Amino acid sequence: MNKDNNTLDDKKYNKLIVILSVAIPVVVAILFGVKIDAELPVFLPPIYASVNALTAFVLVLAFIAIQNKKVKLHEKLMKFAIGLSVLFLVMYVAYHMTSDSTKYGGEGFIRVLYYFILITHILMSIVVIPFVLITYVRAITNNIEKHRKIAKITFPLWLYVAVSGVVVFIMISPYY
To answer: Exposure of 49 by Cβ count < 10 A (0-12 exposed, 13-18 middle, 19+ buried)?
Structure first.
């Protein structure tokens, strides 16, 4: 496939990327305002924090795989990482639709640090959506040169989101 066909293939996904990049954060924000009077059968925060930790681990494994030219393994790991991120989002939203938010109880510098990590985590979790989608589309359309270029940005952003999510959970867990 030549470069022009790759560009055409990329472009046919652009509308979907834009729609998902806007719709996901908007829907999540709307759902945060919806409260369902139901008790979930499990305590979700440690579970979805573990899913975030696993996502970070899988991202690192995928990076190592591609560094070692194991393309098929990289591909499988990246699809798994996307699946884990979707699973995290579903559990996270379900928890917040059925439970009151936990207030952070730390004081002083640790409080400032917590809110810095939380705010950057939330902002980067929104910013990373189009990066993940564009990176994925460039891979599935075999636009490997452009895929590599954007993956150099997507990987650290996504890894930060996954790791900072775990850190936020660890910092707030004493206050549940």
So the answer is: buried
